[in-house]
Amino acid sequence: MNLAIRDIQYRLGRFLLTALGLGLLLATVMAMGGIYRGMVEDALSIVRTPGADLWVVQKDTNGPFAETSRIPEDVYRIIRAVPGVREASPIAFQSLQLRVGPKLFRVQLVGHRPGGLGAPPAVVAGRPIVRSRYEMLIDRKAGIPLGTEIEIGRMTLTVVGLTEGIVSNAGDPAAFVSLQDAQEIQFLKADEAIRNDRARLEADLHAVPALATVPAPALAPILQDTHLANAILVRLEPWADPGEVTQRIERWNHYRAMTTAEQEEVLAKSVIERARQQILLFRIILLAVSTVIIALIIYTMTMEKTRDIATLKVIGAPDWKIGSLILQESLTLGLLGFGLGAILIGLAADYFPRRVAILPFDQYILLGIVVGICVLASVLGIRRALSVDPTTALGGGA
Hints:
13 helices; 10-stranded mixed β-sheet; 17% strand
């Protein structure tokens, strides 16, 4: 019978407890990787949902997610006239905190023109937005039932449909409303702020003799313009060259045009890069701790069977067989810990507050690293086993 199996059977309880501890440690490593993957998927879902080829944003900015971008709503008509553009539609984004009864939660508000680009690709419950005002679609993650009325500022919106899997880069559920509703929520000021602005405008007009006779209320509608958007989504004709269309928009319309891939890159580097580096460093530390733990366990197990190893040498067991015993135990411990860790994270992933995406590719990579750690950790035990004096078996020492 295999010596490693016999040795494990002899110390089965202790071996299983050690494997469980290692499994918990590896489950933490898997969770950190899954949190990072989930963070990337969450961040990019809001960019990929509209299905646009280009994002036209304010000049010298990086778009609505990494920086503030405001452009007139009607710019989409100019963009639509550019050769190669099949469809263009304004869109507005805003992060909001809502209250439904005692429940307080944050959402990523997305305002789009009904029938235009920017609408969610599918509604999993209820119906899409069919009216031009006061209707909302919200991600199922928010836990808001259909028919719920939500007050935002001066308006009351009714939840008519639910989406799934569309969240912001912060993990907040996305809520879709009409562009007009989103513009009023984002750009329309409160009555008190309007009165203050008019008083300040009136003072400024009186300070300029040429404008002293102009009444402030006459200019107020110009200054209170809410027909703004954060970006113009563009879908190209199949034959269009994105590079040429981008250059034409930037050269003649003086806005910045970014492809969806560029928008994803900006979002990934500017928004989640630090979180990625922090999680990566934490994973490296956990793997280093796992290496030390496995090495100490294997070394301790080798020390405990010093007399058994000496006996094997007395009866003529070759060095490779003794080394194989240590290596097999180390690999068994690592693989058992990996399996337990995979089961634990599979059971617990749905209970994390943010998405935990466990990808097979990441698991294969981690499995390879665990095998490498086990081989590396067994070196210390093998060196100890090979240095055991055969006379120890006859001397009665440990």
